[in-house]
Amino acid sequence: SETTMRALFDLCTENMMAMTRLPQPVIAKVNGVAAAAGCQMVAQCDLAIAADHAKFGTSGINVGLYCSTPSVPVTRNLGRKQAFELLMTGDMIPADQACDWGLINKAVPAEDLDAAVDEMARKIASKSPAAVALGKDLFYTQIEEGMAAAYERAGTAITCNMQSVSTRKAIDSFLGKAPPPDWPDRSN
């Protein structure tokens, strides 16, 4: 029924938005085909790394179904012309093209996929969790605002961030006045 279908798509939307609301970045790891909702999931993730043999597309159009919900994150990650082409042709694009178009961060040989994702995750995990959470929230909030409002929000965010004890310790460390903070303890 229409009510059941709408409830399903509302739940899918809530799941997509939950990834954006998490304080930690979400990394997609793609080792195959990401079509329609799979392509949506990749586009919705904060970062994406794929095996070089992976393929991506919004293929619903091939069976008379415009990929409406996948179009939301796809149009926010790709240039307009590339997004429109992907959504209107139903073509599957290879990983190198998906990287060139901005759908994924990088394509690596399949045997290096796990290591590449782990390296990205470790790199981010080595940073201040408070700064990462603040940055992710600011990234998604300000990108939807006009430039003046975005700068206002960014100014407030950096002012708050600079007040953190761990941030002040990190700045002092950078300036050679103190030992570096221990971000992994997740205290601040």
Chain-wise SSE layout:
Layout: H1 2-21, E1 27-30, E2 33-35, H2 37-44, E3 47-51, E4 55-57, H3 68-77, H4 80-89, E5 93-94, H5 95-101, E6 106-108, H6 113-125, H7 129-142, H8 147-162, H9 165-174
SSE class: mainly alpha
Rounded mean pLDDT score:
90
What overall geometry do the principal axes of the alpha carbons give?
globular
Largest sheet: 3 strands, parallel
Termini distance?
49 Å
State which percent range the strand residues make up: 5-15%
What order do the SSEs take from the amino end to the carboxyl end, as H and E?
HEEHEEHHEHEHHHH
Number of helices: 9
- Rg (CA only): 19 Å
Overall number of strands: 6
Reading side by side through the largest sheet, how are the strands ordered?
1-3-6
- State the low-pLDDT regions, or none: none
As a percent range, the share of helical residues equals: 55-70%
Overall description:
This protein is mostly helical. It has 9 helices and 6 strands, in the order H-E-E-H-E-E-H-H-E-H-E-H-H-H-H. The protein has a 3-stranded parallel β-sheet, sandwiched between helices. A 3-stranded mixed β-sheet has the order 2-4-5. Helix 2 (37-44) runs parallel beside helix 3, helix 3 packs antiparallel against helix 4 (80-89) and helix 7 packs antiparallel against helix 8. It is globular. The model has no long low-confidence stretch (mean pLDDT 90).
